[in-house]
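quick one before i forget lol
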Amino acid sequence: MGSEGDAERVVRDFCATFEKHDAEALRPFFTDDVVYHNMPMDPAVGADDAVAFIAGFFAMCESMVIETLHLAVRGNVVLTERVDTFTVGQIVAPLPVMGTFEIRDGKISAWRDYFDLTQITKALSGDS
């Protein structure tokens, strides 16, 4: 198991990689058995499903940028308070998110995001 600094670096690098808008660029951050769960939805289990889920997000928007407001680490667990901003055409939709990442052997083995699904659905539809 790595240090807390290693866990923080994995998560910060992972979040920064979203700016590439390339789901495959995120694959190296995941363990093969990763569980990625957006809490309002069903979880994606395994690296292939997690990458496919993110690719679906990327297909819906021109960009997704993650701004980390706060980050806390305890052992192999990293908690983030973020604003994930999706751009779809003329719509720019910032979404407040709380995320939990569990790190195993330098990779993300679990990722849970908590957010208001109604808020992002309305914003992306242009209904503010």
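fyi The radius of gyration is 14 Å.
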